[in-house]
Amino acid sequence: MADHDWQRDHALLALRINRLVTGYSGGTAVIYRGPVEWSRQAESEPEPDPGRLADEAARLLESAPTAYLAAHVRAMRAVALRLAGVRAPLPEYARQCLACEVGWVPEETFASAHDRLDAALPPGPGPLAGRLASWARAHTLPDVERLPPLVALAVAETRARTSAFVPLPPDEVVRCRLVSGVPFHAAGAYEGGVTSTIHVNRDLPFNLADLLYVVAHEGHPGHIAESLLKEEHLAVGQGRTEQLVRFMLSPSFLVSEGIGLHAEEIAFPGGEAGEWLAGHVFPKTGITPHDADLAAIHRARNALWGVWGNVALLADEGAPDRDLIAYLRRWGLHDDAEAARALPLLRPSAMAPYIFGYYHGWRLLDGWLVAPDRAARVRRLLTEQLLPGDLATTG
After folding, report:
1. What angle do CA 140, 146, 150 make, to 5 degrees?
2. N or C, where is the chain less crowded by C-beta within 10 Å?
């Protein structure tokens, strides 16, 4: 099969599966910036049959030009089979999609994260969840409409620090847009060329102590930097389209979420994030930062993403909502409102395995980045198409 034909069929497969996912859940399964004629073709066709899409994925798998693309076609085949009614246990389904073994995270992992939070937060009375919530409230921006210029400050600093690892376009523009009625807290969207937007949910309180944690994750050296740099370094302009067709329930997004959760630590090692916020952000808001170990708080919260994966496993086994909420409260330190917002993302669905990308992506990179050539490894993460197996075998 000619390479162009394979890439076209690969794109159409992703777009057709996305039509089904969007119709069933209202979400999205693909980030697409490829040829418009392909997306128009997929949109104008009758609704596809998921069983036939699974067969098409099997056909494409036989001639996949790279191991990276083969892994992503396997993920698409797994999703198509799920949409066709073939239901594997969630750990197996997630393994097929993410090319990574996932399973129950022991509660000892969360208890250890709780101990680190206890030591990192300001001392005070009451349970740990209440102390964490009190710390967040103390740093919450009173008027979220004041956030965009603060995000701009953070973007400038994170871009400058990321450019020490990989050169970035000097004319890059990253905007901040406040949005309502969305299920996320923040999301970075690369729009092509040198333009991107960080969307922030104006309906939720924004903890300014998390400003760099959020902006680095969604922007630089996180999702926006990765998208921009991989398009640039993978010669999209020379006929390669695979980076323009990004199937989200796939191994590459496990790596991407791992990058995102490590992004602040990469750009601001040690206590540098807290120091920068104290010098550049809090004085502009009138908020006095509490004496806390910000890096330790964020690292512990990264470990608690494993709680969400455990809840997804419980939901897949049919546990009632009251048990899911109780688990989120006990181990995730969420209040009732936060747990209720989380539940729709954790119930069984075709996109359910995505939640494992956070904890398992973070944990995978946590070992791989501890190396004498750390800077070179960060550059590889931002410019090469790596699979989880590539990181597991070279760390």
Report:
1. 85
2. N
Q: Where are the alpha helices (DSSP H) in the chain?
A: 3-25, 36-44, 50-62, 67-83, 90-98, 107-120, 128-138, 147-162, 211-218, 223-233, 251-267, 272-280, 282-285, 294-303, 305-316, 321-332, 336-346, 356-368, 374-383, 388-394
Quote the DSSP letter at residue 244: G
Q: How far apart are CA 17 and CA 93, in angstroms?
A: 16
Residue in 59, 63, 72 with CA at minimum distance from that of residue 3: 63
Nearest by Cα to 123 from 112, 113, 134: 134
What confidence category does residue 158 fall into, taking pLDDT thresholds of 50, 70 and 90? Answer: very high
Please, what is the average pLDDT of the chain? Answer: 94
Q: If you average pLDDT over residues 162-183, what whole number do you get?
A: 96
CB neighbours of 139 closer than 8 A, spacing ≥ 6?
A: 207, 208, 209, 210, 287, 289, 290
- What's the rounded Cα separation, in Å, for the pair 123 and 323? 30
Determine the longest span between alpha carbons in the chain, in angstroms: 67
**Which are the contacts of 323, defined by CB distance < 8 A and separation ≥ 6?**
314
DSSP code at position 206: -
Q: Select from 275, 168, 279 the least CA-distant residue to 219.
A: 168
39-48, 141-150, 228-237 — which is least confidently predicted? 228-237
What are residue 246's DSSP bridge partners?
31
Q: Would you give the DSSP letter of residue 222? A: S
Two tokens at 310? 């455990």
The reported pLDDT for the residue numbered 232 is: 87
Q: Is the pLDDT of residue 24 over 50?
A: yes
